Amino acid sequence: MSNTAKQAASTFKIGGELEINRLGYGGMQLTGFGVWGDAPNRETAKQVLRNAVEAGVNFIDTADSYGPHTNEVLIAEALHPYPAGLLIATKGGFDRTGPNQWVTNGRPEHIREAIEGSLQRLKLDCIDLWQLHRVDPKVPVEETLGPVVEAVQAGKIRHVGLSEVGIEDIERAEKVLPIVSVQNLYNLGNRKWEDVLDYTTQRGMAFIPWYPLASGPDKLASKIQAIAQKHGATTAQIALAWLLKRSPNILLIPGTSSPEHLKENLAADQIELSEEDVAALSE
Predict the structure, then answer these.
(1) Category of 25 on φ-ψ map: left (φ > 0), alpha (ψ -120 to 50) or beta
(2) CATH number of the CATH domain containing 237
(3) How far is CA 240 from the centre of its chain?
C-alpha cells in the first residue's frame, strides 16, 4: 500500500469535512467505579489524555454522563486550549443516579441543559460532534432532537450522531436533521449491529464501536492467539486491528487509564492483517 493510500485508510472525514485519525480515545475509564465520580488519580488521567494527543490522537469521545460531568471537566483541564484539529465528541441523554445506574432522559429540557452544560465544561463555543446517548422510548425522538436542531442553528453544535440505534431509528432521526455518526456496541465477539455497520458504510457515516475489546481481550484470546503471535502483537491489538480492517468508516475509541495500555492500543494501527487473518477472525 502506498503512503497516500495508507494515510487515506487511517483517516476518516466526519460529516465529510472534519478529517480525523481513525484510532481515537474514549474517556469513560477516566472516572471512578461504575463510571461514577472523578478519576481516582487525576494527574495520571490528565497525563493519559495529553499522551494520547501527543501520539497523534485527534478524536476524543466523552459524555456528560461520565462522572457525571467530571470527565468533560477533566478533558478541558488537561487539554484546553485545544490544539488545532482536535475533535472532542460528547453525548447527552442520560440521568445518573449512582454507580452503574443509567436512566434514559430524552425530554427536551434535559437535552437543552445537557448541551449547554457540555459547552461550559468543555470550554467550547461549538461542539464538533454531539451524540444522543440513547433514544428515550418515553419521548418521541422528534421532540428530543428539537433542542439539538436549535443548537445546530445557533452554531453551538456542528454535527450530530446517535448511539445504540437501529436503521429505523437513524432514518426517523434523519427526518429531523442530518446524522453523521452512529456509536453502537460492536466488537470481534459481539456483532449484533452488523446490519447497522453496513448501512452506515453505504451512507458514508462514521461507525464508532463502543466496548471495542468486549469485556477484555482475554475473552477472545483462544480465537486470536495464533494470529497475535504471528504478528508479535497482543490479543487486544489484533481485536482493534480487525475492527480497523472490517470497514473504512469505523472509528476506534479504546479507553484506558494506563499510559502503558494507551501506547499498546495506539500501536494497533501499525498491524497489517492479511485476508487470511481477517477470514479466520471473522468465522
Answers:
(1) beta
(2) 3.20.20.100
(3) 13
Average pLDDT, the chain: 94
* Residues catalogued as catalytic: 66
Interval 187-191 mean pLDDT: 88
Domain with 26, as residue range(s), is 3-282
Indicate if the pLDDT at residue 4 is higher than 60.
no
Average pLDDT over residues 145-150: 98
Share of the chain above pLDDT 70, in %: 94
